[in-house]
């Protein structure tokens, strides 16, 4: 079905001079290269875009001459527009504004500051370093303000980083892609037909207004259709796909370059709404997006001409370095001041700023227009854009995982079943220590409370495997069952063990009735009874108050376990370590043995150390051990 759709799109947009079999060959080549890129991505654990980029260059006219996108003529622009509209919509579809309210202000600041700072510095760098004419330099500066969901979305889904980090990157990519297109169109209009002050304001209002109005209207319309009509999943997918294309086409018809903003708003509206079939829609869109992403990356990479790269030379690399190591960090650190992002998370967001399809496609379009009008600089613009894409995509795609590990921003994925009082407190503690946590609960009231605390929630019955999959159980490291129903908790644990291959150390359960403890223990499920634990604690408080105070942790403190893996710590006695005064090592576990962490204990690789500390001191000690 997807292959047929691809062939129809290609053949319907072709040049009359080219036999239709050529388009079938293109479709087949794209499919084969996508499969190869996917296999290489899995083998080397690197984003698929890297391999698509390399394959497109090799298959293009500059190397093997198997794939020549220019033979598609005007159809190339239509194909790129179609693909980008679906990709941008799918990026917005995965953004739920209700669950990321704490970062919305940061995202808006990042989009605004990022566009202004990147535009100014990129324009200056390309003008002074690369020697581009000022108008072409400004056009380059406008195009590279977009990080782009076509690259960001698949990248952050391959790198396990905190939820707030991945979402700020995805939402930024969706929004600044649209903003970049509008800014670039404005600069281009100023180059080819200078606008007056009033015309300039009218241009911006028309593009932004059309994008917002049509995006919101499409979102409301789809929500109304899905909420009032009984439809099959297949019909829902077809209606949604048609509406995405319609939204883009109508927006572009009334105001050029407003289509991307319209489908971005449309996607965010649907992603933030409780509409039926959302999970099925996401799965369908994910498959379609992979196909379209592969198609446009291969086609645009094949457009690359080595002469453009040689013409720019090393000065182009210097311009890209300014973008990566100056413009991006400045905009990120300014935008996230006073937020919950720590320094390492800001550094990671600063590192992840690849440019993708939109700059390449629009730069190529602008270059053709400039050349046809006899204006110089079009080829240099394309060459510099492609240098930027190649360096940023290869650098980010190949190093993102390593950078995340080096900065220590890779959290655990924890699935909590039950959003009552216990589940909420537990989820908040996990979030506070930087883990990725998702809570599943059938109660609308509990879900609302959790969302107010910026906890990710999935509203549904956890006994349904599809609900667990939607919550991310496939990627979770731990499952914690905290409901007040022992039968439910036991069933969840059994599903995790039998269906998703969790081992006994990855499952934890709450047992409400002490008599049911053995049922969990018999299945090798780690379980605790609140009643029994409370009794034991109270027992220690009576007659042994000082012993109990050792284990008493106030709200501002924490107890953390850390694996010793830092070479600078291994082989040292605890007394030799410069630990914060507000922290204390309680215990060291080595293999099956556990002992008190006194000053003479020499730490060995893979020891498990239990740390207690006030504020963030326990986390600082854990970071020291695990670097």
Characteristics of this structure?
8% strand; Rossmann fold; alpha/beta; six-stranded parallel sheet; Alpha-Beta Plaits
What does this structure look like?
The chain is an alpha/beta fold and 627 residues long. The chain has three domains: 1-405, Na+/H+ antiporter like fold (Up-down Bundle); 411-532, Rossmann fold (3-Layer(aba) Sandwich), CATH 3.40.50; 555-624, Alpha-Beta Plaits, CATH 3.30.70.1450. 63% of the residues lie in helices and 8% in strands. The protein is built from 25 helices and ten strands. The strands form two sheets. The chain has a six-stranded parallel β-sheet with strand order 3-2-1-4-5-6, sandwiched between helices. A four-stranded antiparallel β-sheet has the order 7-10-8-9, with helices on one face. Strand 1, helix 18 and strand 2 (436-441) form a beta-alpha-beta unit. Helix 2 packs across helix 12 and helix 3 packs parallel to helix 12. The longest helix has 32 residues, at 197-228. It is globular, with a radius of gyration of 27 Å. One of its GO terms (cellular component) is plasma membrane. It comes from Methanohalophilus euhalobius. Its main location: membrane.
């Amino acid at each position: 079905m997807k292959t047929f759709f691809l062939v129809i799109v290609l053949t319907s947009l072709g040049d009359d001079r080219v036999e239709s079999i050529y388009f079938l060959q293109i479709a087949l080549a794209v499919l084969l290269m996508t499969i190869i890129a996917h296999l290489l991505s899995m083998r080397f654990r690197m984003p698929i875009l890297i391999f698509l980029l390399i394959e497109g260059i090799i298959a293009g006219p500059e190397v093997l001459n198997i794939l020549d996108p220019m033979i598609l003529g005007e159809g190339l622009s239509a194909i790129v527009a179609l693909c980008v509209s679906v990709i941008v919509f799918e990026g917005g579809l995965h953004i739920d504004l209700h669950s990321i309210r704490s970062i919305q202000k940061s995202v808006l600041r990042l989009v605004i500051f990022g566009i202004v700072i990147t535009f100014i510095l990129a324009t200056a760098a390309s003008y002074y370093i690369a020697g581009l004419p000022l108008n072409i330099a400004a056009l380059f500066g406008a195009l590279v303000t977009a990080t782009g969901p076509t690259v960001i979305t698949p990248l952050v889904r391959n790198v396990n980083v905190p939820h707030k980090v991945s979402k700020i990157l995805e939402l930024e990519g969706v929004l600044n892609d649209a903003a970049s297109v509008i800014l670039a169109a404005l600069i281009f209009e100023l180059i080819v037909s200078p606008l007056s002050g009033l015309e300039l304001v009218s241009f911006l209002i028309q593009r932004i207004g059309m994008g917002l109005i049509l995006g919101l209207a499409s979102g409301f319309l789809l929500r109304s259709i899905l909420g009032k009509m009984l439809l099959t999943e297949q019909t829902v997918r077809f209606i949604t796909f048609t509406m995405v294309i319609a939204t883009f086409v109508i927006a572009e018809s009334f105001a050029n370059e407003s289509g991307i903003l319209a489908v971005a708003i449309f996607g965010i509206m649907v992603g933030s709404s409780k509409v039926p079939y959302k999970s099925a829609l996401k799965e369908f869109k994910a498959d379609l997006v992979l196909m379209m992403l592969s198609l446009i990356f291969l086609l645009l990479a094949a457009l690359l001409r080595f002469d453009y790269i040689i013409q720019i030379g090393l000065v182009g690399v210097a311009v890209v370095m300014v973008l990566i190591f100056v413009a991006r960090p400045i905009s990120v650190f300014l935008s996230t001041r006073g937020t919950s992002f720590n320094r390492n998370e800001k550094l990671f967001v600063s590192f992840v700023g690849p440019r993708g399809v939109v700059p390449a496609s629009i730069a190529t379009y602008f270059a053709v227009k400039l050349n046809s009008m006899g204006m110089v600089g079009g080829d240099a613009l394309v060459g510099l854009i492609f240098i930027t894409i190649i360096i940023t995509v290869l650098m980010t795609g190949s190093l993102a995982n390593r950078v995340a590990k080096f900065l220590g921003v890779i959290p655990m994925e924890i699935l909590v079943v039950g959003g009552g009082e216990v589940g909420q407190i537990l989820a908040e503690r996990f979030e506070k220590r930087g883990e990725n946590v998702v809570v599943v609960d059938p109660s609308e009231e509990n879900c609302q409370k959790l969302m107010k605390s910026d906890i990710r929630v999935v509203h549904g019955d956890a006994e349904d495997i599809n609900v667990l999959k939607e919550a991310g159980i496939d990627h979770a490291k731990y499952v914690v069952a905290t409901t007040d129903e022992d039968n439910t908790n036991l069933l969840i644990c059994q599903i995790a063990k039998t269906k998703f291959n969790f081992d006994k150390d990855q499952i934890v359960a709450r047992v409400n009735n002490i008599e049911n403890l053995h049922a969990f223990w018999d299945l090798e499920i780690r379980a605790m009874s609140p009643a029994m634990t409370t009794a034991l604690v109270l027992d220690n408080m009576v007659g042994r108050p000082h012993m109990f105070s050792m284990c008493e942790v106030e709200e501002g403190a924490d107890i953390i376990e850390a694996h010793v893996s830092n070479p600078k710590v291994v082989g040292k006695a605890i007394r030799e370590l410069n630990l914060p005064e507000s922290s204390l090592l309680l215990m060291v576990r080595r293999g099956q043995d556990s002992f008190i962490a006194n000053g003479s204990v020499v730490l060995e690789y893979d020891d498990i150390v239990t740390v207690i500390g006030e504020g963030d001191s326990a986390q600082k000690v854990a970071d020291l051990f695990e670097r």
